[in-house]
């Protein structure tokens, strides 16, 4: 059983790591939202929902530049990333309300008219995040936060009614006098772990529910770029089929499937500007790219019950001869699941079509894999099984990626509509 909350928090953290300028932005906003909601006596369920929405509110900011742009108090074109966030999350049952809150988190209060936007109802919770978000953007890291309380409040007050619900601004007026609030914000922004924790309601997920949420994660990870739009779905499908052909037990197969979905979660920390430059990366850019498996490991490490999934997911760039990264593990130090993931990742990467090139044909793929076996990079037995079941495994990849591609195309269409 794994905690939905821990998973959500790690997804949020990964998204905030794309630039130090973001300074734990989503966590800060969630913290401010929580305290405003408590001051306003929000009932527990509502408070919990709005806090989870806050922790993921900018998940739709696909590029680093976009995320940084909306950190300006008068954000330019802020609704796009809010809409993307909604699109990414809305189909996961547990997140449907949360997605609706996120969709309108930049709508101005407009003296009450902001309860509707583009002919749709806007939830009051969206306005609470809007205020918390703007408070967070006004706070600078350069000075002691508590010394900024009056400046921040004056600025918020000057937009009360126009941008923000005056009732919520009143709540902030009360909150800003409490020293702990500023001390906590300082602590969060310094990446420290001690602060008055948000009382999130949590939920335990069984393995099938876990597969549902990791599939959603795959979308958040992959949809950042047209280049990778269906990669994790492919890796997951191939890894699962391989595990089945290798006669792994059912639970292990499912764990491997989940690991496939999240194996590149560390890529959320890589700016899209680098992700979209497949060829000709500078040395510095490649160094950033290479770090992604390390981040996958550290992010998943925080989740209790994820030990095996993490072991499978994070070692996909390790090689049997010890020349992989980032742990330089070799031979028997690599579990069967990790070896499967490495083969699935390579197989999918060379077989899948990308916007800038076509995938390799069967003969070429087999040649590449065999050469890697010869060089003692990947597991010979797994490659034998793959070749013996090539058609079946490749079919599973194509099917999963086709489905994901349709989804991605719908997603891209909705964005331009
Ligand atoms: Fe935003
Ligand atoms: Fe934000
Ligand atoms: Fe990777």
From TrEMBL:
Query: Which segments constitute the HD-GYP domain?
Result: 206-402
**PROSITE patterns to which the protein is assigned, alphabetical:** HD_GYP
Cross-referenced InterPro entries? HD/PDEase_dom, HD_domain, HD_GYP_dom
Which CDD domains does the record associate with it? Answer: HDc
One family name in Pfam for this protein: HD
The protein's name is: HD domain-containing protein
């Amino acid at each position: 059983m794994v905690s939905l909350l821990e998973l959500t928090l790690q997804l949020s953290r990964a998204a905030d790591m794309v630039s130090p300028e973001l300074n734990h932005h989503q966590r800060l906003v969630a913290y401010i939202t929580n305290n405003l909601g408590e001051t306003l006596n929000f009932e527990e369920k509502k408070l919990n929902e709005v806090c989870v929405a806050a922790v993921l509110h900018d998940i739709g900011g696909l590029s680093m530049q976009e995320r940084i742009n909306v950190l300006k108090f008068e954000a330019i074109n802020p609704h796009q990333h809010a809409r993307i966030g909604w699109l990414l999350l809305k189909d996961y049952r547990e997140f449907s309300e949360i997605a609706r809150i996120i969709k309108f988190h930049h709508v101005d209060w407009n003296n009450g008219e902001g309860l509707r936007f583009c002919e749709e109802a806007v939830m009051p919770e969206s306005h609470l995040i809007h205020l918390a978000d703007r408070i967070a953007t006004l706070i600078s890291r350069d000075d002691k936060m508590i010394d900024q309380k009056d400046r921040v409040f004056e600025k918020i007050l000057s937009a009360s009614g126009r941008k923000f619900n005056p009732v919520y601004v009143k709540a902030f007026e009360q909150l800003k006098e409490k020293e702990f609030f500023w001390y906590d914000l300082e602590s969060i922004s310094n990446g420290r772990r001690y602060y008055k924790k948000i009382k999130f309601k949590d939920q335990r997920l069984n393995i099938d529910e876990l597969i549902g949420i990791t599939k959603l994660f795959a979308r958040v990870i992959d949809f950042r770029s047209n280049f990778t739009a269906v990669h994790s779905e492919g890796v997951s499908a191939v890894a699962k089929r391989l595990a089945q052909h290798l006669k792994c037990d059912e639970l292990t197969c499912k764990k491997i499937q989940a690991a496939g979905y999240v194996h590149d979660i560390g890529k959320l920390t890589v700016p899209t500007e680098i992700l979209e430059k497949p060829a000709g990366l500078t040395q510095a850019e490649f160094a950033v790219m290479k770090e992604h498996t390390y981040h996958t490991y550290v992010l998943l490490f925080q989740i209790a019950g994820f030990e095996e999934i993490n072991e499978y997911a994070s070692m996909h760039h390790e090689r049997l001869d010890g020349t992989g990264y980032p742990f330089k593990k070799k031979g028997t130090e690599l579990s069967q699941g990790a070896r499967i993931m490495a083969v699935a990742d390579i197989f999918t990467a060379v077989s899948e079509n990308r916007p800038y090139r076509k995938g390799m044909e069967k003969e070429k793929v087999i040649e590449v894999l065999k050469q890697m076996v010869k060089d003692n990079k990947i597991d010979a037995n797994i490659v034998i099984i793959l070749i013996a079941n090539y058609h079946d495994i490749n079919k599973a990849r194509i099917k999963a990626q086709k489905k994901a591609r349709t989804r991605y195309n719908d997603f891209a269409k909705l964005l331009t509509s």
